[in-house]
Protein: Aryl-phospho-beta-D-glucosidase BglH
Amino acid sequence: MTNNQFPEGFLWGGAVAANQVEGAYLEDGKGLSTSDVLPPAPARFKLLFHGKGEIPQIEEGTYYPSHEGIDFYHRYKEDIALLAEMGFKVFRTSIAWSRIFPSGDDEHPNEAGLKFYDDVIDELLKYGIQPLITMSHFDMPLALLENYGGWRNRKLIALYERYARTLFKRYGDRVKYWITFNEINMLAHIPFISGGIVIAEGENKAQAVYQSAHHQFVASALAVKAARELMPEAMVGCMVAGEAIYPFTSKPEDSIEAMEHARITQLFTDVMVKGEYPYYTENFFRKKNVELVTEAEDAVLLRDHTVDFISFSYYTSTAVSSDPDHPDKASGNLFGGVVNPYLQSSDWGWQIDPLGLRCALHQMYERYGKPLFIVENGLGASDTLEPGDIVNDDYRIDYLNRHLIEARRAIEEGVELIGYTSWGCIDLISASTGEMKKRYGYIYVDRDNEGGGTLRRIRKKSFHWYKEVIATNGASLSDN
Structure:
């Protein structure tokens, strides 16, 4: 690293998910997915955050923002040209499983769906942008939930492996970077969109969650195995929701609570990176009355087919208190925790902590020693479109600048970080709230929560800022 630049070949870019941008939710043979039937806020929250309720169905007369998204399905060429204008080296997107296998267990893949992603990948490569493909990003065929019960059913392992092999055979000559499951540890927090799991009345939620996680671990290992057979030059990574975790006070009980909080995510990364469950798992499962059902070959598959890199999202840190009645709960954090008085919060209650990103990078690299990739980071905010097509999002520039400064410091301190794709590089539908108002992008999309607007794309102030960051390989970042 020289002149405050990032390492040569650093992968600068941005990230989106199919179910949040594509729209065309039933076009060209696509089947319904779990994300397609999630109702708008606030009706979605009970199912989204707790996994409880009935399997949702689309209600006639209700507007679902994700059904049209930002119409990336028809406008991808325009959007990719804008990403290329910023100088993107990599673009993370996902493939909608239900575009390829509409019911998940179809005998043959849907050619129209395969062709769409052919076209997207080729358009990216035309501009020299590497695709980073997530195979399952909070989105799976609804029929796999209706007919099999989601990932709690072991039969999904073989269906996912077939899906993965289909993708590798079709796109393996052009795609070098793959992620098996988006934020796989979110199964423990939001099981419906992570695993297609609806918790039945009286069911042990932990049993459903960790049995589903085990099936995803095995499926991921089989995908890694297939990738090494079919694409020996490719890199396959896991992806977790990352955080820095602090004990709220120096009270010893708070440190124990922080340790146990961290172990929930470490269980997921240990299996996928080290190839085995961590030593504390037996006691952890016993406390939660979990009896994992496995097969003899599972341990060998997990051991022999670990991932090549660790990718993660980072938006906020978590302060943890041992006091269950602590009065100041963190409102916007899916991980829970309490409000950290030393940090500011975003409009949605997510506490802003750039130093926490540096901590998270060191903690992961120290534990695993494998290349790291920040594949989500960004600020959700209510942007204002001013006359003259101006969006002055200095708050977003400040957020991203401060996080990238800390990422650069971690690299200087020895962490191997291979890339950075900020979340929602073009405005999209929020996964947590199902709305357009919560914007992350460098590109403003003229669409509101009720479906009004022209879908016109408009460059924000941050568009030009990020273009300069990429052009200088990070040297233009401000330390002030």
Notes: The mean pLDDT is 95. The radius of gyration is 21 Å.
